[in-house]
User: Which sequence fits this backbone?
């Protein structure tokens, strides 16, 4: 399994393995203290409700990246400093949010890689509605639980198997 400290560059991965990669459209903003991160994918599909995000980030995440399909909503935040703190505490490598985050200045101090569409100060609902570990799609890519995600300053790429 990839260690969080294994150096890589998505550009180099694309040069060496372009036939094995799906490249996510460049639509995300970097948050969190970790610029580069990688790991196997876990997925959530939610809409303006972060209860399952909290529940998932409260579990051991060593070697995993949580991909949250928030429907692209720009009306509230699905991750803030408390959930990012849980991700760090439970050793998640990173979180991709197809939606918004909040507490952005605090997020940048937390040792987790985070990508999101934007920021929004309003917190989401907490009803626990959504799906766990199902295929989700956004950014021109389908994310499957168990695939490998690599993210750095240049972008996000997905592979069916570990490349490092």
Assistant:
């Amino acid at each position: 399994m990839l260690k969080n400290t294994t150096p890589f560059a998505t550009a180099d991965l694309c040069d060496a393995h372009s036939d094995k990669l799906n490249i996510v459209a460049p639509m995300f903003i970097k948050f969190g203290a970790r610029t580069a991160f990688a790991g196997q994918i876990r997925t959530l599909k939610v809409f303006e409700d972060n209860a399952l995000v909290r529940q998932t980030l409260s579990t051991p995440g060593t070697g995993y990246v949580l991909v949250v399909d928030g429907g692209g909503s720009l009306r509230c935040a699905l991750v803030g400093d408390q959930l990012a703190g849980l991700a760090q505490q439970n050793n998640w490598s990173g979180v991709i949010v197809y939606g918004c985050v909040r507490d952005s200045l605090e997020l940048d101090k937390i040792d987790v890689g985070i990508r999101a569409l934007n920021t929004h100060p309003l917190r989401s609902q907490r009803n626990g509605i959504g799906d766990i570990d199902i295929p989700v799609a956004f950014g021109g890519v389908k994310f499957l639980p168990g695939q490998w995600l690599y993210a750095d300053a240049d972008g996000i790429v997905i592979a069916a198997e570990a490349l490092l």
In short: Residues 10-159 form a domain with the Glucose Oxidase; domain 1 fold (CATH 3.50.30.40). The radius of gyration is 14 Å.
